[in-house]
Amino acid sequence: MSSNGVVDNTSIDTTIFTSLQDKIDEETKTREELKDIVEILTKQGRLTQSLLARIHNCPTAQLQAQVLQPTAQSIQEQVITVTRLGQTASKYPFYKWNGIWQRDVQNLISSLQLYVWLSEGKLVTIEEVGVQFGVAVNVKETDTFHVTIEDYLLALCSTIEELSRLAPNAVTLGDFARPVQISRFIKDVYAGFQLLNLKNDALRRRSDGIKYAVKKVEDVVYDLSLRGLLSKEET
Amino acid sequence: MKCSSAIQKIVLMASSSSPQRLRQWANFQSSPKKARTMSTQSSLKDAFSSYADYLNNLNEKRERVVKASRDITMNSKKVIFQVHRISKNKKEEVLEKAYKDLAAVMNQYVARLVKELKGSDFWKLRRAYSPGIQEYVEAATLCRFCKSGTLLSLEEMNASFSSLSNPSQEPLQINILDYILGLADLTGELMRLAIGRISDGELQYAEKICTFVREIHRELTLLVPHMDEPSDMKTKMETMLQSVIKIENACFSVHVRGSECNLLGTDDSSYSLMGAAEGIDL
């Protein structure tokens, strides 16, 4: 090495960078592998959501045949994909990759929540979601594919929003009992959310919307009761 | 009608691919309609209480991790300042202290971070601790360069962490992105160091730094386009190039002026060479 600019440039071991390159290539491969499955899930999710969107113009009496049955099939298709995703994704660190499928899994959970509420009038629990998906839920100790509590709660925010939209639409279709059921349900859920200490994150922002949903449905119920359109049992 | 045929297709596919799941689903569907009772309401409340516990614990843990990360950052910065105290006659002594401080960062603060993280936390809370890790990479690679003129590799750093956690647990592994971002910051520190060395009359040292930084920049130019989250990286690459150019310019000026005054290589050149660093924004 001398001061006239002739300096040997071997001070860096170039294998350091080739090894980094190999690692990056490997990550790219994993990403592609997961994205391929998630793409299928996205496509299937669109069908499920388009089927569920029919609740807004389907009379309650025909709900089972026209909406719920086809939705069940579509959800089930998605479930098969999620199970497959879970098997593949469990090979890798969960939180390294979960950004790839988070949105689609949340949409699916929301579809299931809506489906179960429409057919049984109850909130599907996160454990039941896990059973249906054939995957674990809320895993703490091991690093495996699972449904997180955050996913479940974010999905619930969407579900509530969808139900608040259903309340006035049900009235239009002549079902005056529906808004009352919805009102009770989302008030319960709202009370649940109030138990959570949320920090300023996505969940906090999404759940902030629930109070508007509650108000919207309350207004519908109020309009109905004002005009004496609710039976005694419903009020 | 298009839609219903699509459904039929899916029904067919579904029934052929997973009969077991179908049965399970059918059971689920046909479970008797439950009336909304007080019990469902209270079970909902129980469920949310458990979610609240989960979120509280997670937030507290995240806070602790952020705190640990901040401590790592702060103390790694001190190590870097220590390295900059190098002068022509006091190299060994200064570096020895820097290495001692670096070891303390590892044994005290990185160890505390590792204690918080287990299982899936490494990735779950990555954003909370990656600033600290990047700063640590910067400090450790800077120390290594000053000592032996080489680049500390990701593997070596990861290996040094394995002593912090007990063998049954997964050790802390530095994420590739954090390592590369740490390297990017390293070039900024090396630029300062080069200017300092020039002022001190150690032109050879500055040129060695120049070559080293130029190499890192060149190698990273090849890597960065292949990375998945290159957003931070693009601006860092720009800054890195600026650092390279600053060192190059400083080396150039000192050559020009040095040859004019014939001061190159002599011992009391520091005063006139100070001018070489003029106009260089530190």
TrEMBL record, chain A:
What InterPro entries does UniProt report for this protein, alphabetically?
Translin (IPR033956), Translin_C (IPR016069), Translin_fam (IPR002848), Translin_N (IPR016068), Translin_sf (IPR036081)
- What name goes with this protein? Translin
Going by the UniProt record, its keywords in alphabetical order are: Coiled coil, Cytoplasm, DNA-binding, Nucleus, RNA-binding
Give the subcellular location. Cytoplasm; Nucleus
Question: Its family?
Answer: Belongs to the translin family.
A GO MF annotation of the entry reads:
single-stranded DNA binding
Q: Coiled-coil region(s) at which residues?
A: 17-44
**Chief location of this protein within or outside the cell:** cytoplasm
Single GO BP term: RNA metabolic process
| Source species of the chain | Corymbia citriodora subsp. variegata
